[in-house]
Amino acid sequence: MTNEDIMNWLTRTADVLQEKRSYLTELDSAIGDADHGINMDRGFSAVREKFPAMTSQDIAAKLKTVGTTLVSTVGGASGPLYGTAYLRAGSVAAGKQELSSADVIAMLEAFLGGVIARGKAQVGEKTMIDALTPALTAAKQALSEGATLAEITSRAAAAAEEGAKATIPLVATKGRASYLGERSAGHQDPGATSSWLILRSLAEACEG
Ligand code: ADP
Ligand code: MG
Ligand code: MG
């Protein structure tokens, strides 16, 4: 994955989060406070405004810019959670001009690790973790089978989509949705859904 591919990933992410703004907000209106799409679009619109300044940055610096921008512009849980994820992903890329398949998987692992470190959620609590964890497992499996980076990331995105859908019956025990208790069951988690969209954008960028 080149610096240009990373830029492509971030552009696609900003585009899809803008496009799915209403959908993500609708999901959050069922079990939260109806702002997840607004939060994500606000954050990535601020990232988009930094694209010109980011052209000269290497991969690590770009990802760190995304992280700090999300932390400073997104009110709500998702800002610090995704902010930490991108900051940690950036650390993995330090000094690298290009990312190998193994590097991309290490980046995903750091991304997930950032969300866990910040939010202390475990699998099954109806959060972003429920999309990111199966995605990482699928990516590792694909790498071990000798898959190309395009296949690895597309299998990760497919697993994230399944993971997001599998949050529907879950009862939330972290974040705002946990205030609803049992009534949070029957709705897809907004954060798991945005995590899937972020990984789908990654897969599209790796397809070239
Ligand atoms: P807020 O809940 O503050 O309004 P958002 O609506 O932007 O923030 O984000 C809500 C999403 O954040 C949830 O759908 C869930 O996936 C995720 N989330 C909340 N708390 C945690 C946590 N502790 N760990 C991981 N993800 C979390
Ligand atoms: Mg919300
Ligand atoms: Mg909120």
TrEMBL record:
User: Gene3D superfamilies, from UniProt?
Assistant: 1.25.40.340
- Which Pfam families does the protein's record reference? Dak2
**Biological process (GO), any one:** glycerol catabolic process
Protein origin, superkingdom: Bacteria
Please list the GO terms describing molecular function.
Answer: glycerone kinase activity
The UniProt entry, under InterPro entries, shows: DhaK_L_YcgS, DhaL_dom, DhaL_dom_sf, Dihydroxyacetone_Kinase
Where does the DhaL domain lie? 4-204
> What are the alphabetically sorted keywords of the record?
Kinase, Transferase
Which residues, by range, are in coiled-coil regions? none
A GO CC annotation recorded here is: cytosol
Please verify whether the record's keywords include Iron-sulfur: no
Query: Transferase as a keyword?
Result: yes
What is this protein called in UniProt?
Dihydroxyacetone kinase subunit L
What lineage is this protein's organism placed in? Bacteria, Bacillati, Chloroflexota, Ktedonobacteria, Ktedonobacterales
Which gene holds the coding sequence for this protein?
Answer: dhaL
